[in-house]
């Protein structure tokens, strides 16, 4: 029993529950614990995962514990008690899909800000979780779901970056493989892709089928050989929001959960895997990554250097609303993106030292809550 791997899922929101469910439905021996804040929600989620897994004949051990991330010491106690091999962070003060539930006109206005100005909402809970991990003395491999493209390089300045992220760059890779295989008349199982792209680009690809003003790098492989030159790459990408469009919003988190499992399961099972992930080792943006013995190594397309890949992602970072992440973790926000939040609900932050992130998250929460009430009536329609 000592060789059974232990995975802790911190966060009992939609994504955390989806990932817990899939981790429990495995023939591989493992112990999984959900660490949540709400006792009722957490217990019900654990029992659903446990009993549905049993129904299929699996024997995963599924348990739970309670904490509040604002209590770093208590969270540290929970981590130390379970001693996870892998810790999955699914914590955010405001999930990315939340603004999609606003009236359409308000959503479209806020959507124009891109993701960067909302950074404190993802940075602060991740930072508190990492502080708890350090306090617990845990050596767990940490996998983070909350905006790793920007959260990780900011926290790296304080030595608090998770090891690797999930989603974003990964979410479009299956569609790219399917579109390329279709264009070439090949079996998709023989097609792989190596994609370097920031969150901004990955988000845009699934909606507009191009990288817009930002850079990206892509190589398509057939049985390991680069065949990118044989493809009409713009056409491959254009088909993503057309023939290969997929459900978005909250229901679309199934894709994010699948991307999380592509990273978590190799780590849990102790096997090597080539994955796509944002924020490996504190880097900005997303990359193809080889997981091996709990470590990460970039596997870049076409002889691209690490410096060139980082430059590609810095291009996406700017267009996502972050002009610069300084070596000390201070964030400089891009002016036009921040102006959207200023115009919509009065929030204005041009430069944010890491020490001010918690106060900024509180301010966004308060202003956005009032804004939501103002633009929405009891039926959910715009006023």
SSE blueprint:
Blueprint: E1 5-10, H1 14-24, E2 30-36, H2 39-55, E3 61-66, H3 72-82, E4 86-89, H4 104-111, H5 120-136, E5 141-144, H6 148-156, E6 164-165, H7 173-184, E7 191-196, H8 199-208, E8 217-222, E9 225-226, H9 233-238, H10 253-269, E10 273-278, E11 286-292, E12 295-298, H11 306-319, E13 322-325, E14 331-333, H12 335-345, E15 351-352, H13 357-375
Parallel strand pairs: 1-2, 1-4, 2-3, 4-5, 5-6
Antiparallel strand pairs: 7-8, 8-9, 10-11, 11-12, 13-14, 14-15
Report on this model:
The chain contains 13 helices and 15 strands. It has 383 residues and is α/β, with parallel strands linked by helices. The chain starts with a strand and ends in an 8-residue tail after the last helix. It has a domain at 5-166: Rossmann fold (3-Layer(aba) Sandwich), CATH 3.40.50.720. The longest helix is centred in the last third of the chain and has 19 residues, at 357-375. A hairpin with a 2-residue loop joins strand 11 (286-292) and strand 12. The mean pLDDT is 95. The strands form four sheets. It has a six-stranded parallel sheet, with helices on both faces. It has helices spanning 14-24, 39-55, 72-82, 104-111, 120-136, 148-156, 173-184, 199-208, 233-238, 253-269, 306-319, 335-345, 357-375, and strands at 5-10, 30-36, 61-66, 86-89, 141-144, 164-165, 191-196, 217-222, 225-226, 273-278, 286-292, 295-298, 322-325, 331-333, 351-352. Helix 5 packs across helix 13 (357-375). It is 42% helix and 18% strand.
């Amino acid at each position: 029993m000592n060789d059974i791997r232990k995975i802790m899922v911190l966060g009992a929101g939609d994504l955390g529950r989806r990932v817990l469910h899939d981790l429990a439905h495995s023939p591989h021996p493992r112990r999984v614990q959900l660490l949540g804040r709400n006792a009722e929600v957490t217990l019900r989620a654990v029992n659903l995962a446990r009993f549905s897994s049993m129904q299929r004949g699996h024997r995963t051990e599924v348990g739970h514990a309670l904490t509040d991330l604002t209590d770093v010491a208590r969270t540290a106690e929970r981590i130390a008690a379970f001693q996870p091999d892998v810790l999955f962070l699914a914590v955010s003060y405001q999930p990315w899909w939340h603004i999609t539930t606003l009236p359409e006109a308000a959503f479209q206005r806020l959507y124009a800000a891109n993701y960067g100005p909302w950074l404190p909402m993802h940075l602060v809970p991740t930072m508190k979780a990492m502080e708890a991990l350090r306090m617990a003395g845990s050596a767990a491999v940490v996998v983070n779901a909350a905006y790793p493209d920007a959260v990780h390089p900011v926290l790296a300045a304080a030595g608090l970056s998770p090891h690797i992220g999930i989603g974003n760059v990964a979410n479009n890779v299956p569609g790219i493989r399917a579109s390329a295989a279709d264009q070439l008349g090949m079996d998709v199982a023989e097609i792989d892709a190596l994609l370097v792209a920031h969150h901004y680009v990955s988000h845009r690809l699934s909606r507009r089928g191009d990288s817009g003003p930002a850079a990206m790098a892509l190589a398509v492989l057939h049985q390991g050989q680069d065949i990118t030159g044989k493809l009409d790459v713009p056409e491959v990408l254009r088909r993503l929001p057309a023939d290969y469009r997929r459900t978005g919003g909250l229901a679309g988190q199934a894709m994010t959960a699948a991307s999380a499992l592509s990273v978590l399961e190799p780590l849990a099972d102790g096997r090597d895997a080539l994955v796509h992930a944002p924020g490996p080792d504190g880097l900005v943006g997303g990359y193809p990554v080889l997981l091996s013995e709990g470590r990460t190594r970039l596997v870049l397309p076409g002889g691209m250097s690490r410096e060139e890949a980082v430059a590609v992602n810095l291009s996406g970072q700017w267009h996502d609303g972050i002009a610069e992440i300084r070596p000390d973790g201070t964030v400089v926000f891009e002016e036009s993106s921040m102006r959207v939040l200023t115009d919509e609900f009065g929030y204005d932050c041009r430069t944010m030292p890491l020490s001010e992130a918690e106060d900024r998250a509180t301010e966004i929460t308060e202003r956005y809550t009032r804004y939501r009430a103002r633009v929405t009536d009891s039926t959910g329609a715009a006023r």
